């Protein structure tokens, strides 16, 4: 256990930024709280819910994954040491969830894996949910991490954070001079904080009840078709989702040959499942909406015994027509 | 738009006519959808096709293509018959209402049913929802304007809004949704044949004097020039000998593409300025490479009349110049020296000579989310909604219009009505969007949408190819079978030069605005 005085956080970030690329929540000129490279925005001490999760670090929106010319592959991308500071417990759960996908059946995604190994994560536990759309507790998580693997977790103790390492990587971070040894009462304080957060950690059962309905095949096509009448097919829910990992690759020419670029894709786009023949197994927007939510709430539950949603509520924040996970789960619950 | 976009959140009723809003203005559509879902706003959609919004509407009027005037006159007939008009507004703010009454009296529900194919009950319901709501917004787009009666259609909507007093208040007005990020700005800046900036007429002596002083010239032409469609026509007859086309691709986007090709070929000198190679640029003698939005700075004026700053976000490609610099260089070489240093300096001049833009200064744009015109001086807050106190001409003038059929009706030889439009993932002729792999994947080819009953009669199935022929050209297209298109009509898009629906469209023009009738022509279809 170490402590980090709040007035030293910015200096710590500056110090760490010398050795590694540091990401932390910062305000943009237009007022959004984004997880960005330190210095790209304005650091304001806020550790709220960033518009996008740490997915932007490990699996960026677009990335050049290799370049090639006649003779073969010229280069693959390199990944630098990175520290991501100030993410939330739900974000860390999403990373651990994504780790499993990115190494499924021993097929290791080299870019993701290289970034994952080169990066460390400092999680800030939530003393209370940072926004109205947070439902991590209902989604099987909590306001602080207990069993989920993590590097460092910080607990807010007023004028300072109490810092706990979750593994060796975390211990190395706590070696930094900006972390102080704990005072006598910090241990007791931590217990108090945890106790207090735990009291707020009681989950309601509305997510669980929707999962049961979906698993019992109680939700038919007409339900999804009705909701899909609102969908404007922007893909925003997918893009902001910390556990959505579908991507597309496209090649474009540069000076020396071609670059293969991968970019986020979305199962809500009609071209995502359309086959070369023109046949589309998910032919309607209703079928695509069903696929996305059944994947997360039903099939992930069947395969991994946990849903593929960490309850961050970003899809509900982003969707302009009220088709985020929260609204859809409530609609499922309203079904007879 | 007479209203601002955000005002859609508080409207009680929407009348959406000739706008496929979810495809073309999805974020405005999203606000409509949310107002309907969360605030129980009532939605009336008038569109021959069963567009997405129609599925969420309280009433969907599926009138025949090109019968908008009859439909709107029919609504006004019902409103007057039931006494749902706004007498106070009519008395205080308008004139000539008797003339309107004299015309719409002949548009009984029975006659409207015959002309438009819309029954009395839904028409009455639509009229009631619109007329009796306190805050009602009309939203329209090219489905209203791209007809030979485009001006009549717009005037009829204005009549409807004035009759019910639905203009000049928040969330209450008439709202044409503009099709490009800056088409409003281009018009505001006088990229029209008869006006200078801010719609100051070229035949007004005071205006001419003002611009002559500002530009230190004499003898500015007091005659209106040609519209875009007229220029292309006159190129064919040889009257117009040279064209300088900026950021437009008429070889694909103009109606009757073969005729457009003939016109472009005949030009003695064609300059095309664009960011990518286009079908039109293939006819050019000189191509000037311009910069994309991300490579330059300046302002755009969006559909709600809001002027916003756009800042350069990336370096520009070597050898390319921003449009304003190219224009300055050409003007200087042609004998009138233009020597602006920056977009800011140009904005200063706009402020000086354009009353509605006088207060939209660089400093204010830098520290705000933009300003909506009219913004008359530096302390003016801008104008979120128009016509609060009065109309530009004073009293609102009812100008009743009679129904006129489209230029070319289906007949035995060409039995189908072809209507054209767009799909969400592609923008216009695809010069930009077709280079984006994901957008191209969403809408990879030109399709002809056809009603299942017609498909059965022609013995075609989803994906089969048909030959579509009009009096102007022929095209082979794969068919998409969908009940969303009414029987007897087919729908196609102009996004794809290799399957360009404008090979078939007719170049019949609205007599005032000179907009072509893209929304209606006659075609024959056979299986191939």
Explain how this protein is built.
The complex is a heterodimer of chains A (336) and B (528). By secondary structure, chain A is an alpha/beta fold. Chain A folds into two domains: 2-199, no CATH class; 206-334, no CATH class. Chain A has twelve helices and eleven strands. In chain A, the strands form two sheets. Chain A has a seven-stranded mixed sheet. Chain A has a four-stranded antiparallel sheet with strand order 5-4-11-10, with no helix packed on it. Chain B has three domains: 5-177, Dimethylsulfoxide Reductase, domain 2 (3-Layer(aba) Sandwich), CATH 3.40.228; 183-372, Rossmann fold; 416-527, Beta Barrel (Barwin-like endoglucanases). Chain B is globular. Chain B starts with 12 loop residues before the first strand and ends with a strand. The interface between A and B is medium-sized, with 17 and 20 residues.
**Which pair of protein chains has the largest interface, and what are the residue counts?**
A-B, 17 and 20 residues
Average of the residue pLDDT scores of chain B: 97
Gross morphology of chain A is: globular
CATH class identity of the largest domain in chain B: Alpha Beta
Level-2 CATH architecture of the largest domain in chain B: 3-Layer(aba) Sandwich
Strand share of the residues of chain B?
15-25%
- Within the CATH hierarchy, at the fold level, what is the topology of the largest domain in chain B? Rossmann fold
CA-based gyration radius of chain B: 24 Å
Structural class of chain B: alpha/beta
How many beta-strand runs of chain A? 11
* Separation of the first and last Cα atoms of chain B: 45 Å
The Rg value of chain A, from CA coordinates, equals 21 Å
* Category from helices, strands and their pairing of chain A: alpha/beta
């Amino acid at each position: 256990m170490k402590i980090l005085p709040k007035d030293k956080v910015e200096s710590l970030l500056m110090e760490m930024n010398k050795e590694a690329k540091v990401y932390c929540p910062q305000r943009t000129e237009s007022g959004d709280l984004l997880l960005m490279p330190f210095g790209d925005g304005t650091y304001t001490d806020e550790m709220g819910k960033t518009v996008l999760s740490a997915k932007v670090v490990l699996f960026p929106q677009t990335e050049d994954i290799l370049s090639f010319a006649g003779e073969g592959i010229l280069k693959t991308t390199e990944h630098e040491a990175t520290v991501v500071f100030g993410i939330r417990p739900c974000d860390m759960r999403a990373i651990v969830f994504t780790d499993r996908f990115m190494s499924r059946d021993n097929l290791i995604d080299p870019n993701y894996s290289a970034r994952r190994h080169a990066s460390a994560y400092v999680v800030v536990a939530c003393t209370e949910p940072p926004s109205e759309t947070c439902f991590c507790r209902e989604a099987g998580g909590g306001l602080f991490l207990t069993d989920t693997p993590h590097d460092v977790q910080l607990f807010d103790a007023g004028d300072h954070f109490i810092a706990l390492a979750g593994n060796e990587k975390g211990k190395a971070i706590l070696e930094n001079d900006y972390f102080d040894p704990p005072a006598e009462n910090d241990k007791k304080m931590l217990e108090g904080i945890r106790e207090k957060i735990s009291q707020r950690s009681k989950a309601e059962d509305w997510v669980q009840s929707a999962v049961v309905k979906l698993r019992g095949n109680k939700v038919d096509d007409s339900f999804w078709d009705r909701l899909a009448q609102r969908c404007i097919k922007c893909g925003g829910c997918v893009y902001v989702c910390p556990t959505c990992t579908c991507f597309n690759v496209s090649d474009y020419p540069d000076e020396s040959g071609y670059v293969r670029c991968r970019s986020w894709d979305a199962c809500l786009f009609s071209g995502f499942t359309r086959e070369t023949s023109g046949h589309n197994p998910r032919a309607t927007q209703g079928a695509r909406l069903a696929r996305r939510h059944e994947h997360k709430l039903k099939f992930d539950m069947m395969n991994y015994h946990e849903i593929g949603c960490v309850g961050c509520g970003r899809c509900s924040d982003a969707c302009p027509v009220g088709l985020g996970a929260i609204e859809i789960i409530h609609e499922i619950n309203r079904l007879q | 738009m007479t209203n601002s976009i955000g005002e859609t959140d508080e409207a009680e009723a929407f009348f959406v006519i000739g706008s496929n809003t979810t495809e073309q203005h999805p974020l405005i559509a999203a606000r409509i959808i949310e107002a309907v879902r969360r605030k129980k706003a009532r939605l009336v959609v008038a569109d021959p096709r069963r567009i997405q919004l129609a599925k969420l509407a309280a009433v969907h009027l599926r009138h025949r293509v090109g019968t908008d005037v009859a439909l709107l006159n029919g609504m006004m007939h019902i409103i007057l018959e039931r006494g749902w008009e706004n007498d106070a507004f009519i008395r205080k703010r308008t004139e000539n209402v008797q003339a309107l009454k004299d015309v719409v009296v002949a548009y009984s529900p029975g006659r409207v049913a015959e002309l438009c194919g819309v029954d009395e009950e839904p028409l009455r319901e639509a009229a009631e929802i619109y007329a009796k709501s306190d805050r009602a917004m009309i939203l329209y787009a090219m489905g209203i304007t791209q007809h030979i009666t485009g001006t009549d259609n717009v005037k009829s909507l204005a009549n409807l809004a004035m009759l019910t007093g639905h203009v000049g208040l928040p969330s209450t007005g008439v709202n044409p949704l503009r099709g490009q990020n800056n088409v409003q700005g281009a018009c505001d800046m006088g990229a029209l044949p008869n006006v200078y900036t801010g719609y100051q007429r070229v035949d007004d002596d005071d205006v001419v004097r003002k611009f002559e002083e500002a530009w230190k010239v004499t003898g500015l032409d007091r005659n209106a020039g040609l519209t875009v469609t007229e220029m292309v026509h006159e190129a064919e007859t040889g009257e117009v000998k040279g064209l300088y086309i900026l950021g437009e691709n008429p070889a694909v986007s103009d109606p009757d593409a073969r005729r457009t090709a003939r016109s472009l070929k005949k030009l003695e000198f064609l300059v095309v300025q664009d960011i990518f190679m286009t079908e039109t640029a293939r006819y050019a003698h000189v191509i000037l490479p311009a910069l994309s939005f991300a490579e330059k700075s300046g302002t755009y004026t969006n559909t709600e009349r809001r002027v916003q700053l756009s800042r350069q976000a990336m370096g520009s490609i070597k050898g390319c110049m921003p449009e304003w610099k190219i224009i300055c260089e050409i003007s200087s070489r042609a004998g009138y020296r233009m020597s602006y240093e920056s977009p800011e300096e140009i904005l200063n001049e706009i402020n000086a000579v354009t009353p509605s833009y006088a207060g939209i200064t660089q400093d204010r744009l830098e520290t705000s989310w933009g300003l909506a015109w009219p913004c008359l001086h530096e302390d003016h807050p801008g104008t979120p909604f128009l016509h609060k106190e009065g109309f530009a001409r004073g009293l609102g003038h009812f100008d009743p219009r009679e129904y006129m059929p489209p230029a070319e009706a289906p007949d035995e030889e060409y039995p189908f009505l072809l209507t054209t439009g767009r799909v969400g993932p592609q923008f216009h002729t695809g010069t930009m969007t077709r280079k984006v792999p994901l957008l191209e994947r969403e809408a990879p080819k030109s399709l002809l949408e056809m009603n299942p009953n017609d498909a059965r009669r022609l013995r075609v199935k989803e994906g089969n190819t048909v030959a579509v022929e009009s009096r102007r050209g022929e095209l082979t297209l794969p068919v998409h079978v969908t009940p969303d298109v009414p029987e007897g009509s087919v729908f196609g898009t102009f996004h794809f030069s290799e399957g360009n629906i404008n090979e078939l469209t007719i170049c019949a023009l609205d007599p005032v605005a000179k907009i072509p009738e893209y929304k209606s022509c006659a075609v024959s279809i056979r299986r191939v």
